[in-house]
Amino acid sequence: DTSRELVKRDLKNLVILDRIDNPAAIAELKAINPKVTVTFYPYDVTTPLTETTKLLKTIFAQLKTVDVLINGAGILDDHQIERTIAVNFTGLVNTTTAILDFWDKRKGGPGGVICNIGSVTGFNAIYQVPVYSASKAAVVSFTQSIAKLANVTGVTAFTVNPG
């Protein structure tokens, strides 16, 4: 839904990073607004930081600029503790850290905007899903910390907390 809304706007490019290649969804996005170039790269947020950085180097080399990062990967499965933390928090931290190397004004970068998808459980834990709730609380806290550096890095960060 987020991608559908984004392509309705005046974008030049939309780059989607996901584990699952879905050509039909990419075609649908292209059909909504043929003026937007929609590109897909296979990506698993649980990959190490070095792999994320390599992929971003490829993307930045192709596009030259990237303005917004939306970290939207997430799972709700408290039976998979390590995976829940890896996807919901560690992957988000790695992706954010990797893009900061390209955007940080202290390193000559242009700045940018990071939108991390949290959850209301990051503020009001649900006792039935304590691992999920804790991972989303970590997202909120991490994002608040990054946001406080905006005047130094030029990178604005915020969370969207559905629920």
The CATH architecture term of the domain at 67-160 is 3-Layer(aba) Sandwich
Query: What CATH first level of the domain at 67-160 would be assigned?
Result: Alpha Beta
Determine the strand fraction and express it as a percent band: 15-25%
Name the helix and strand elements from N-terminus to C-terminus, one letter apiece: HEHEHEHEHHE
Helicity, in percent?
40-55%
Categorize the overall geometry. globular
Q: Remind me, CATH topology of the domain at 67-160?
A: Rossmann fold
Q: Considering the protein shown, what is the CATH homologous superfamily of the domain at 67-160? A: NAD(P)-binding Rossmann-like Domain
Continuous helix count = 6
Biggest β-sheet strands, sense, barrel: 3 strands, parallel
Mean pLDDT rating: 95
- Could you list the spans in which at least 5 consecutive residues all have pLDDT below 50? none
Kindly report how far apart the N and C termini lie: 15 Å
Q: Name the structural class.
A: alpha/beta
Tell me how many strands there are.
Answer: 5
Strand order of the largest sheet: 3-4-5
Alpha carbon gyration radius? 16 Å
GO cellular component, one term: cytosol
Organism: Drosophila paulistorum
Enzyme class: oxidoreductase
GO molecular function: alcohol dehydrogenase (NAD+) activity
Q: How would you describe the overall organization of this protein?
A:
- The chain has six helices and five strands; from the N terminus they run H-E-H-E-H-E-H-E-H-H-E.
- The protein is an alpha/beta fold.
- Strand 3, helix 4 and strand 4 form a beta-alpha-beta unit.
- Helix 3 packs across helix 4 and helix 4 packs parallel to helix 5.
- The mean pLDDT is 95.
- The chain starts with a helix and ends with a strand.
- It has a domain of 94 residues: NAD(P)-binding Rossmann-like Domain (Rossmann fold, 3-Layer(aba) Sandwich).
- The protein has a three-stranded parallel beta sheet with strand order 3-4-5.
- The chain is globular.
